[in-house]
Write a structure and sequence with these properties.
By secondary structure, the protein is mostly helical. It is built from 12 helices and no strands. The chain folds into 2 domains: 32-185, no CATH class; 194-346.
Length: 366
């Protein structure tokens, strides 16, 4: 009896079963690692940035001690300032929110819940007079101000939870950073071997990723930090309350294209002017326009254009889209994904141009 049909069935069964097992293993691995993806990405970014320093440390101190020294240096430069800044911002934000909630409910604040309700009634009065003459927001706000105050203080608990989550992410990121620095040289050949592209093309892609990380870090993050620090000093000297909170907000907004520091310092200056602090308001506007904003206008285009080799509009969409879809890590992941997409576009374009020469990717130009 011919057993070829049975052998064919068994071979197909084993073939498809193998790939189903591979897919299941990949999906399972993604599910297991997904909570740690932000930490892994941040560790990868810091490993690229710290690699030149780590090479010097490892030559003098050895692999393990050099990786530990590089990790501790990154912790001192990045980790500890982030922790202290996060604690200060959380305390100031919590106090500001609690003060607003208490002042809005007991009538001691500049803006109270009753005044907000009556202002809403005044704004919608032309509509309610015709459609619902007896409809008013103010009385409802007055009768429910205790419940509204409780809802205003609920974000305090979420701030604490987010702070703990961010701290854990930071801890896992630095643990991962140590192993990436220690074992990075041994991991690199495996990464190249797993790539479907030729070795030289994979090397170019990795170099483009490294340039993208350096460009975004220097051109976006460092420039934003410099702007935020200068803006914070201006807030302190002009008497803006909760200066650290507004300085941190300035840093975050400076990282997002088309927003920037004026979103914060212009309203602050107007508030100072409205409260009769003319000198402070004018000084804050002058410092903002002449110093803080000029850093963004002068440094960012030069650094990003030289490093990323992308159109500014492409950088805008990559940064903003990355932040909206992935959170803070999107500042790095967005431009990296766009750079990878552009590299793959070059590969496909060159493949189509030489398609008549047969299968396979074209040799890279040197």
């Amino acid at each position: 009896m011919d057993s070829s049909p049975q052998l064919t069935f068994e071979s197909k069964y084993k073939h498809y079963g193998f790939w189903l097992l591979v897919i299941a293993a990949v999906v399972g691995g993604i599910v297991v690692l997904w909570p740690f993806v932000p930490a892994i990405l941040w560790a990868s970014v810091m490993a690229v940035l710290m690699w030149p320093i780590h090479k010097k440390f490892s030559k003098r101190l050895g692999g393990n001690v050099g990786a530990l020294a590089s990790t501790l240096l990154a912790l001192a430069i990045v980790g500890l300032p982030l922790v202290f800044l996060g604690l200060a911002v959380t305390v100031q934000a919590g106090g500001l929110l609690r003060e607003f909630a208490e002042g809005a409910t007991d009538g001691t604040g500049v803006v109270t819940l009753e005044s907000i309700g009556h202002e809403i009634d005044r704004m919608i009065e032309p509509v309610t007079d015709r459609l619902a003459p007896n409809f008013q927001i103010g009385p409802w706000v007055e009768s429910n101000k205790d419940q509204i105050a409780q809802s205003l203080t609920k974000p305090l608990s979420s701030l604490a939870v987010q702070g703990v989550q961010s701290l854990l992410t930071l801890v896992f990121a630095f643990l991962t950073l140590f192993f990436l620095l220690r074992d990075g040289a041994r991991l690199s050949p495996y990464v190249v071997a797993l790539s479907p592209l030729p070795t030289d093309r994979t090397t170019q892609v990795l170099a483009r990723m490294s340039n993208t990380i350096h460009g975004v870090f220097v051109g976006v993050i460092l420039v934003a930090i410099a702007q935020g620090l200068l803006a914070t000093l201006a807030y302190v000297f002009t008497g803006v309350p909760n200066a650290l909170l507004w300085g941190a907000l300035t840093i975050m907004l400076c990282m997002i294209p088309l927003l920037g520091a004026p979103i914060v310092y212009v309203p602050m200056a107007l508030i100072l002017l409205a409260n009769g602090k003319t000198w402070e308001g004018v000084a804050l506007l002058a410092a903002g326009f002449l110093v803080v904003s000029q850093i963004d206008n002068l440094l960012k285009p030069w650094v990003i254009g030289a490093r990323l080799l992308m159109h500014p509009m492409a950088v805008f969409f990559a940064l903003l889209g990355g932040v909206l879809s992935m959170g803070p890590i999107g500042l790095m992941a967005g431009p990296m994904l766009l750079a990878l997409l552009l590299m793959l576009h070059d590969v496909v374009r060159q493949q189509m141009e030489v398609g008549s020469q047969g299968p396979g990717l074209p040799p890279t130009k040197t």
